[in-house]
Amino acid sequence: MPPLVWLRSFEAAARLSNFTGAATELGLTQAAVSQHIRLLEEHLKTRLFIRRARGIDLTPEGAAYLPHIQSAFATIGNSTTELFEPRATQTVTIRSPISFATLMLAPLLPQLSKSHPFIRLQIETIHKPADYGDAWNGLDIRFGNGAFAGRRADQLTSEALQPMAAPWLAGDPDWPRLPLLSVFGARGMWGEWFSAAGITPPAEASHKFDTFVTALEGAVHGAGVLLGSRPLVDAAVRNRGLLPLSDFALRSGTGHYLTAPSGTSLDQADETVRLWLLAAFRRYLDIEPLR
Q1: How far is CA 153 from the centre of its chain?
Q2: CA distance 126 to 133
Q3: Do 221 and 166 touch, CB atoms closer than 8 A?
Q4: What b/e sequence results for 172-184 when a residue is b if at least 16 CB atoms lie within 10 Å of its CB, and e otherwise?
Q5: Whose CA is closest to 256, among 290, 232, 276, 227?
Q6: How far is CA 7 from CA 63, 68, 114, in A?
Q7: Could you tell me which of 178, 290, 283, 205 has the C-alpha nearest to residue 240?
Q8: Reported confidence tier of residue 230, pLDDT bands at 50, 70, 90
Q9: Is 260 strand, coil or helix?
Q10: Average pLDDT over residues 82-86
Q11: Where are the alpha helices (DSSP H) in 94-137?
């Protein structure tokens, strides 16, 4: 392979059609550039330029050689930039229910930073479906059956419901008589769970909370029994803050979906986050009951 300095002189002279211009660009003398070209031609045993009184022209061989040299320099330059030059940090805004942001997204941020160190998430929490609005053009996470007007959706989780309680309540065989915890304004799933499990529901009213996160905290502190929405409660079970009270898990047919506007393309950073989230949550699409 010819020395790189010869090739640099050849590329600059060919692009500028002038040895003097090439010398100025490269910080060399015109004599040095001429010598590099002469040595390169001797090395290749081929004339690359036709010298004229008022400039130079490429020979057919030189013209054929030039795009290969330029492509090689571009590859070296792009690789150097990619590997060694600082990259601009990109911020991706994602809207999410507060329960999902707290219990599922936040624990994954160290992994995201490790996989994509130049991406930062800006997480905006949603408290009720009406807060999503219609004009949002970025990513958001929604709970439902996957049909969201004007949005394309990728499923992240599949919900399963199991009763959970703090360890000191978990041994009570008559746990349905304990206070039942639910979320204000949410679906009334306790009745469906008891019916599907073949258990007569208690007549007592449950404690209610304005978010699933606070209901979960209430359950961890022994306030009563939570109908745990999996996989939101899985970390609490792994940490032994909650224990399942029944092996029966009611699959609701719903889950969390990552959505984006229909008919539009995401920018590179948003698409990177979308693909990363799909890979990170793949294991939550078909979950087994906790025992």
Answers
A1: 15
A2: 11
A3: yes
A4: eeebbebbbbbbe
A5: 232
A6: 14, 11, 39
A7: 290
A8: very high
A9: strand
A10: 71
A11: 98-100, 109-115
Arithmetic mean of pLDDT, 74-89:
77
- Asked if omega into 231 is within 30° of 0 (cis), the reply is yes
- The structural domains of the chain, ordered by start, are 4-84 (1.10.10.10), 90-158+254-284 (3.40.190.10), 160-251 (3.40.190.10)
Main-chain dihedrals φ then ψ at residue 228, nearest 5 degrees: -70, 125
Beta strands 90-97 and 243-244, pairing class: unpaired
Answer whether 223's CB lies under 8 Å from 264's CB: no
Judged by DSSP in three states, 36 sits in helix
Pull the structure tokens for residue 242: 């909650």
For every residue of 204-226, DSSP letters joined together read SPPEEESSHHHHHHHHHTTS-EE
- Read off the tokens for 162: 């199991």
Tokens of 263: 């008919």
Bridge-partner residues for 67, per DSSP? Answer: none
Q: Are 145 and 253 in contact (CB under 8 A)?
A: yes
How many other CB atoms sit within 10 Å of the CB of residue 234? 16
AA identity, residue 30? Q
pLDDT-derived band at 185 (thresholds 50, 70, 90) equals: low
What's the rounded Cα separation, in Å, for the pair 192 and 13?
A: 79
Specify the DSSP class assigned to residue 244.
E
